[in-house]
Specification:
The chain has about 130 residues and is an all-alpha fold.
Length: about 130
């Protein structure tokens, strides 16, 4: 009878984990697309947009504080940015977008912690150890 109870427990846990994995697998990430800029008069507009993106990123309090900590004034930083090539400036502007997009993402961390806890519990149960939460 005890073997049937243990098998039922593991079967229920396996079904729960399979359902959870199915749910997580069905969630889709965000796909983004954009128009590739052509070489021509739009190049100046693209450079201006990239400079404004980087400038708005540099105006954040955290970034300003880090610049001051490293001994760089915001004017020096903007001077360096204005002297960058178009290609390097565009790379930097796209990196600022990535930093801003990933700054508030805490749900991935929480899901990872939940999966880790479930995995530890399953391993402890497989080793016939008791888990007591007080």
């Amino acid at each position: 009878m005890a073997a049937i109870r243990k098998a039922g427990w593991f079967l229920a846990l396996a079904m729960l984990m399979a359902g959870w994995m199915g749910l997580l697998g069905s969630l889709r990430g965000v796909a983004e697309a954009g128009v590739i800029a052509s070489h021509g008069s739009a190049q100046a507009d693209l450079r201006g947009a990239d400079i404004s993106k980087v400038q708005s990123f540099l105006e954040r309090k955290v970034v300003l504080q880090k610049l001051v900590d490293y001994g760089v004034s915001p004017e020096e930083a903007m001077g360096k940015i204005r002297s960058m090539s178009d290609r390097d400036l565009h790379k930097l502007a796209s990196l600022t977008d990535r930093v801003a997009a990933g700054a508030d993402d805490g749900i991935g961390f929480l899901i990872g912690v939940a999966i880790l806890i479930i995995l530890i519990i399953v391993i402890m149960k497989l080793m016939n150890k008791e888990i007591i939460v007080r």
